[in-house]
Design goal:
By secondary structure, the chain is an alpha+beta fold. It is built from 19 helices and five strands.
Length: about 550
């Protein structure tokens, strides 16, 4: 338990409290950011908005959080960083259900749709515009959304669908729209008519839109009307096409939307003389390069603001945690040392316990082996040798040893006693497992062969005994020895067959004799057979007995090579 408590100290982590949410501070930063945004100081505005995100939890103040993301994404969108704008605005999607202000959600969906529209992902653009259209917002916002859907349809070359949508908006009753909306609506209706080859209607609506936009004096909107007129006249009246293209080029030149200037330049170049062609071509190339450089600069600019803000917060966090780290450093080191000492002590204890266990186990096995060996020798001495000696003594006392035949009989009895003594000695001596193993095994088996018992060996020399584990050699030796002892004592067999085989994984031994056999249902595993089975099972082998009365005795055992 003490070890676990000390070890848990190692898992301590430094926890630095986050700054509490301050509505006042958020309001102050929102005010500063909005002032910069309205003054078109977008760098400063973006910086302040980014600061708001760092202290404004969306779960507590979803309105300010989503509004801030909308403004940041709008700034990036105005500067052509559509990918950055999309990444920023998507941070607000998980929290739109927390706000009741529908116009904030409408703005978020519209910005996402505009990003997709500007990157020609018309399917997703329409998807988010339609989501915005379902919200409860002002008629002007709904009209703007429908116009954006129409623009996506135009980009997707679905001109008939776009025209039907725009015409339905033109006939909307009971709603007064701003002039800039009407200007865009008429211009887009004219563009759709032009795209379906209705030039007269197209020119009529384009001119209506142009007249409205002239009154508004918006360079960006005028540039759009002029480029559409240039496109309409491109194949019919090159001089008018060039005229309107120049007007469009000049109007777009007054704005920061330099990318819009590429379309009128292409028409101007197409209808220019040689000298003009060279001049405007150089302008086109320089403008294209400038747009690329500007886009990269803008992307890096806003990414740097985010990065610097994040780095500053991380540095502040590091400073706050540094003191806590120093305070814990000494304690952690001390705990590490204590844990190390405990691990060493436990390891030593485990080693000692394991050593004691293994030593005790080995001693127990030696004692058991000695006990079984002594019991076996004692039994053989009592059951076999003692009986033979008693009969021999009785024969010597009750028989006239002066007769030659009696002397010869006494000699035979003594020879039998000597043979039994030698067999008992051989059965319990150390078994050779080196290169002389086969000779030793053959010699042991041959001792059980008599005039009345014939033993046949098959396949003994086919086994690769050199690669077999010594313990397995001993097991085979003792198993066959025990089977042969039982055969000579009980079976009254005259013929014994022992077959050896080896496959890829096992050594197979088949023993068979023609003795009187036994009933396997009534077999009792005494010390001999029990020891054989136990030895084989210890080395993960198999042991099977097959016998029946007057049908001989069969044993099969299998030992794995590895």
């Amino acid at each position: 338990m003490a070890f676990l408590v000390i070890f848990s100290c190692q898992k301590k982590t430094i926890i630095v409290k986050k700054e509490a949410y301050s509505k006042t501070e958020v309001t102050r930063l929102v005010s500063l950011a909005n002032i910069s945004f309205n003054a078109k100081k977008f760098d400063s505005a973006f910086y302040y908005y980014n600061e708001i995100l760092s202290i404004c939890p969306p779960s507590k103040d979803p309105e300010n959080y989503i509004s801030t993301l909308n403004r940041m994404a709008t700034i990036q969108q105005k500067h052509g960083d559509y990918a950055g704008s999309e990444t920023t605005i998507k941070q607000g999607l998980p929290y739109i259900k927390l706000t009741k202000k529908q116009f904030l959600v409408w703005t978020l969906y519209s910005i996402l749709g505009n990003n997709y529209l500007n990157t020609h992902n018309n399917k997703n653009a329409i998807l988010y515009y339609e989501k915005a259209l379902k919200l409860n917002v002002t008629p002007e916002k709904k009209l703007t959304t429908k116009i954006n859907i129409g623009l996506a349809l135009i980009q997707n070359k679905e001109f008939d669908e776009a025209l039907n949508l725009f015409l339905s908006l033109e006939n909307t009753k009971g709603v007064v729209f701003k002039p800039e909306i009407y200007g865009a609506l008429f211009d887009n209706i004219g563009l759709c008519y032009f795209k379906i080859n209705n030039y007269e209607s197209g020119l009529d609506y384009m001119m209506k839109g142009l007249e409205i936009r002239k009154k508004l004096k918006s360079p960006s909107e005028l540039g759009k009307s002029y480029i559409h007129l240039a496109q309409l006249y491109d194949s019919k009246n090159p001089s008018l096409a060039k005229k309107y293209a120049l007007l469009s080029y000049n109007e777009f030149g007054k704005t920061n939307q330099t990318e819009q200037s590429l379309s009128p330049l292409r028409i101007i170049i197409k209808h220019s003389t040689y000298q003009e062609f060279k001049t405007y071509s150089e302008s086109y190339i320089n403008l294209n390069d400038s747009i690329y450089v500007t886009d990269q600069r803008v992307k890096n600019q806003f990414a740097k603001i985010k990065y610097n803000s994040k780095r500053e917060k991380e540095e502040n966090l590091k400073l706050k945690t540094h003191r806590a780290e120093n305070e814990l450093k000494v304690e952690r080191q001390r705990n590490k040392n204590i844990v190390a000492y405990i691990i060493i002590i436990l390891s030593l204890c485990m080693i000692l316990i394991l050593y004691y266990y293994l030593t005790s186990k080995a001693n127990r096995e030696k004692i058991e082996a000695a006990y079984y060996s002594e019991t076996r020798i004692s039994k053989k001495l009592h059951d076999e040798l003692a009986n033979d000696i008693y009969h021999t003594m009785a024969f010597a006392e009750n028989t006239n040893l002066s007769l030659i035949e009696n002397k010869e009989q006494l000699t035979n009895y003594l020879e039998t006693i000597y043979s039994r003594t030698r067999d008992i000695s051989k059965e319990n001596c150390t078994i050779v497992t080196d290169e002389n193993y086969i000779s030793s095994l053959k010699e042991m088996i041959s001792r059980f062969s008599t005039l009345n018992i014939n033993i046949i060996l098959n396949g003994l020399d086919s086994i690769n005994w050199y690669n077999i584990n010594p313990n397995k050699k001993i097991t085979i030796y003792r198993a066959l020895q025990e089977l042969l002892v039982n055969m000579r004592k009980y079976s009254e067999a005259s013929l014994v067959g022992i077959t050896f085989k080896q496959d890829e994984k096992n050594i197979l031994v088949h023993y068979k004799d023609n003795g009187k056999g036994i009933d396997t249902d009534k077999i009792i595993f005494k010390n001999g057979l029990y020891n054989v089975e136990s030895r084989i099972h210890k080395i993960k082998g198999q042991f099977e007995i097959s016998s029946s009365p007057n049908q001989g005795f069969k044993v099969f055992f299998k030992l794995p090579l590895s």
